[in-house]
UniProtKB/TrEMBL annotation:
Keywords: DNA-binding, Transcription, Transcription regulation. This is DNA-binding transcriptional LysR family regulator. The keyword Phosphoprotein does not apply. One of its GO terms (molecular function) is DNA-binding transcription factor activity. SUPFAM superfamilies: Periplasmic binding protein-like II (SSF53850), Winged helix' DNA-binding domain (SSF46785). Belongs to the LysR transcriptional regulatory family.
Amino acid sequence: METAFFQFETVAELGSIRKASEKLHISPSSVSRQIQKLEYLYGTELLVRQSQGVRLTPAGELILRYVKGRNKELQRLRAEIDALKNLESGHVIIYTVEGMIGGLLPRALARFGRDHPNITYQVLVAGTDGVMRAVAEDRCDIGISFQPFPRAEIDTLVSLRQPVMAVMSRQHPLAGRRELDLSEVRHQPVGLPDQSFGIRQLVDHVVRSEQLALNIRLETNSIDMMRQFALQDMGIVFLPAFSFERELQSGELIGVPIASNVLSLSTTQVCKRAEIELSPAARRLVEYIRKVADEFVGVA
């Protein structure tokens, strides 16, 4: 059945028997026979044929989920066997919030890569909600998200203390303050990430609880756009230090602590799917992330 499962997965991904046959260099009738074999085995239709291709039936969705899950388990098995053979090989898929690209994650990957040059990795960027969905759906080995809501199916491996600060250019009139109350910022133009970001969810919570209204000038799905908003002195943004590490070190941007227990105690969390063991490569990478983060701020 391996051939049938493989060809079914290819058809599902491409949405077309013809495209799948072209990719696999076999005839469309050969692909159709393998699909029919699966439909006979399970006693139900797996595909609905349409003029523009095919779509999966609910049973087809279940089969596809099984095939993808099995492929993932086979990858983990190979990684475990390689570890037993003392082989430095493997592949790690990481979903992360964009702020971690600002310095910490690249630094951890650079050290990891120098020590383990045969391990490859894939880094995908999403908001906090998107990262947690990817972890829950087993689309990655580890996820790095900012202040996520707890989920029973997800385990936290590392919690990194990351207070949210009011970030502005050094020319901003509030740049010299040692601390700011959020009410002091309400008349300033501010830039915020969209609702999928943990930062936005935290700021909105504090704004509601303190019955404030912010002067939102910018809303974006890009942390880099928020940094540019502050760098160009267009207003204030709210970010943890990891998200603007380079600009903080160069003095281009100033981070002022905010007098708020909610914002000062926020964390970034490295997590995994609860019932699935990390591969040796992923487990090792988490150790590197922990070490690099500890050098920067300390682990909560």
